[in-house]
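Per your request, structure below.
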């Protein structure tokens, strides 16, 4: 039989090459599809079939397996990369078949390739080939410049392998991988149809990116990728999970913390176009309020100035100043205050109430009480305002002046004595 071809286009073939393999008295194997850990190495030709030899019939109606369902050499690699191989013909490893001349499918005599096949088969089984080794694993912040291309456009920022990043940071991940080949380490190369990928995952991958070979040393290859972190904070992992047939499993994980923006790291509000409407609304409100206050102050009548000027005019034209030649300040104090005209007394009281109302917190909303000319003339002082009216107005309470006659009542106690109650 010819040497086996690649299992798939993305799987490396360790057992291929030119030449024929002699498998005398081989035993067929059927792997099925129940386990992904079993892999056929050498399949039977399409014309082969397997049946029960105890059946005497010339024509086999129900064979066990036919064609490519039959495996002559099978392998199993566990999840911890432990291996074992099943060879259907033990005689194929004898010295007599290493250099023996066999007849090929075309009828030509060809020297067998059992020696090379046995070397590749035992080398893979005893982990001399197909063994991957991970070297340095690094990740760091990056600065991407638009004026350069390729590897020169990415520059490292900060130290290696930090434990915390910020959302939307540009990050570069590097991993060094080697492949063991019999007696030395060689740079690991990925098949053209295969991909070595990086997953940036929390519970599920947020990014799944292809790692590209950036540098090659004597015995290793450095794969790298640069990407931007997602807009999600939490505990994330850089993970390289590479599992292929005939290759040892690689599962590398590095955990990092991704934080949100700090208070001084958010972009300015004027840099966000969606916030321009709200910024305009804020400034319109500010300018509108300033204009309203300015208009209100400009249009407000000068009550205090008018009352003060009217009081001054009234005093200068009164008899207390013109005829009696007293100072205006003396006329505003008793006993000269009672000699002033009623209008001057009203203006003096209104001016004083206006000044006191500026510092009285109770009058900020209800205002000063209006001055009634009739009350001033009658000598009655208005009471305290409750809901806009004096407390003793219309509620049936009789005001007192303190000069009423004293009422005396006689009360007889329990002991029979009389007591006077005033």
């Amino acid at each position: 039989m010819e040497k086996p071809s690649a299992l798939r286009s993305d799987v490396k073939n360790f057992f291929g090459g030119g030449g024929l393999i002699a498998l005398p008295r081989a035993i067929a194997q059927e792997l099925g599809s129940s386990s992904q850990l079993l892999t056929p190495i050498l399949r039977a030709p399409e014309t082969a079939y397997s049946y029960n030899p105890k059946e005497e019939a010339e024509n086999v109606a129900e064979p066990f397996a036919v064609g490519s369902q039959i495996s002559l050499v099978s392998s199993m690699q566990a999840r911890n990369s432990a291996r074992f191989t099943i060879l259907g013909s033990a005689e194929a490893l004898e010295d007599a078949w290493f250099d023996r001349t066999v007849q090929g499918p075309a009828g030509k005599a060809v020297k067998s390739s059992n020696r090379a096949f046995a070397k590749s088969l035992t080398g893979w089984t005893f982990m001399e080939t197909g063994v991957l080794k991970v070297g340095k694993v690094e990740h760091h912040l990056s600065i991407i410049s638009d004026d350069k291309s390729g590897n020169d456009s990415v520059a490292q920022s900060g130290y290696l392998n930090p434990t915390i990043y910020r959302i939307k940071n540009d990050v570069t991940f590097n991993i060094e991988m080697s492949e063991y080949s019999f007696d030395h380490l060689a740079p690991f190369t990925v098949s053209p149809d295969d991909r070595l990928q990086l997953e940036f995952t929390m519970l599920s991958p947020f990014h799944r990116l292809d790692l590209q070979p950036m540098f090659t040393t004597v015995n290793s290859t450095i794969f790298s990728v640069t990407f931007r972190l997602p807009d999600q904070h939490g505990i994330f992992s850089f993970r390289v999970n590479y599992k292929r047939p005939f290759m040892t499993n690689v599962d590398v994980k590095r955990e990092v913390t991704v934080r949100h923006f700090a208070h001084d790291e958010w972009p300015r509000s004027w840099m966000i176009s969606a916030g321009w409407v709200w910024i305009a609304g804020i400034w319109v409100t500010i300018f509108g309020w300033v204009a309203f206050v300015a208009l209100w102050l400009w249009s407000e009548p000068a009550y205090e100035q008018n009352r003060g000027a009217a009081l001054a005019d009234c005093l200068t034209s009164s008899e207390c100043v013109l005829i009696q030649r007293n100072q205006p300040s003396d006329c505003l104090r008793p006993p000269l205050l009672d000699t002033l005209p009623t209008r001057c007394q009203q203006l003096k009281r209104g001016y004083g109430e206006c000044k006191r109302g500026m510092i009285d917190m109770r009058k900020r909303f209800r205002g000063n009480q209006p001055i009634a000319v009739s009350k001033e003339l009658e000598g009655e002082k208005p009471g305290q305002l409750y809901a806009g009216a004096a407390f003793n107005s219309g509620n049936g309470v009789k005001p007192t002046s303190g000069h009423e006659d004293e009422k005396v009542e006689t009360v007889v106690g329990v002991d029979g004595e009389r007591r006077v109650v005033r």
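The two ends are 140 Å apart (CA to CA).

Regards,
D.
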